[in-house]
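Worked problem 6 (solution included).
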Amino acid sequence: MSEGAKLIGAGAATIALAGAAVGIGNVFSSLIHSVARNPSLAKQLFGYAILGFALTEAIALFALMMAFLILFVF
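Solution. The predicted structure is:
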């Protein structure tokens, strides 16, 4: 019973990875649209996009860490 609950909990924790993937797609989609509208700001916008990517990826890594903690520690 406990092993099944761990697997269900880890699977639920990995749902956040799909949300992070959508978020990363939105970041770079917005970058492409912004550069198309104003190419002179491409360098500055790229820096902002990398920051958004890093923060979104951090959320994905936290979700993956929670899934591994559920599986292997509890």
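Discussion: The chain has one domain: 3-73.
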